[in-house]
Amino acid sequence: MSDPHVNAINTHAQPRMNVKTVTTLAMLTAVAYVVMVLSKMLPSVNGFLDFDFKDVVICIGGFTFGPMAAFILSTVVAVVEMFTISHTGIIGCIMNVLATCSFCCTASFVYKKIHTKKGAVLGLALGVAALTAVMLLWNYLITPIYQGFPREVVAAMLVPVFLPFNLAKGGMNMAVTLLLYKPVVTALRKARLVPESQAPQKAASGSGVVLNGIPADAVNDRKLNAGFLVFSLALLATFVTLALVLMGII
What we know:
By secondary structure, the chain is an all-alpha fold.
């Protein structure tokens, strides 16, 4: 028979976990808002398309707590933006939520199913594709309403303007998320603000092969991490260059 005191301890432990989760999400919301404000300092494309890096913070939250957390963060930050610094009202808020959710929720959902580096890359790549597709449709439908452009003008901008803009925006957010997720979440785990990873751990014994005094598994992990870093930096450089072209800087 189980000890009744065990259940009492578990009952009290769960609320503390919930408080930590809410605290972490609130902190991520504040950081995402600050990043969004700082992103406004970047030059716009065609005078009204703004690059925004808050999706990096929201994606980290989604990778850590799941796609529902990404949706909540996306909505809260967009609403706060609408009531503080935005001049596009409810329509801009809706567009903001659609853009961020299409990227972050897609990436978080895939990463939740495939909890590996491969899953992160696949999820983020699908997030970029979803962001681009969703925003092409909604820019065609909504931009004429809140920007006052004739619809035929917006239609002519879809491929030369909206398509590369959303690819550059999504690609930069993807690359920065790949670079920052592990160090940020490691710091949050050390602060006991997020739970330990649920990904299966490798066997402690490893392969048993030793190269120059270093286990072969450790050597392979270093090579994988180095390749992952190079891939992320190359991706970032590619999309930053595209963004600079779209902003007319180069």
